[in-house]
Specification:
The chain is mainly alpha-helical. It has a domain at 36-118. The protein has helices spanning 14-20, 39-49, 53-62, 65-86, 103-111, and strands at 28-31, 92-96, 116-118.
Length: 119
Amino acid sequence: MRPRLHLLLQPGNAPLSHRLSGAWAQSLFSEAVNARGNSLTLTEQVLRDARFLAEADAILAIRKRTIWSQYVVGLFQNIQQAMRTHMTAEKLRFLLYPKGLAEKDHRAIEKDDAGVVWL
């Protein structure tokens, strides 16, 4: 089950592409959602209460380490691709703690880590 969050952007996602095209920012900072703590649990509950069940299920999935790791790779690669298409990856600052990444996901990001700030 892959999370279906709006945060897991697809390449060419119109809202992100629109925001990046013509942007004059010196840098674009991004990071994956932190799966620790209670913020995701609270977000999931609010979504369920509002009957956004698919989104709540996606949040629940991301709280699992292996799914979170996949989410991080997808998020980073999609933002990186959008930056390359509409600006430059040199302006990307994707803050990333590698500790929670699965080994295969860590390697996937290391293959092309332009824009990653390893913490």
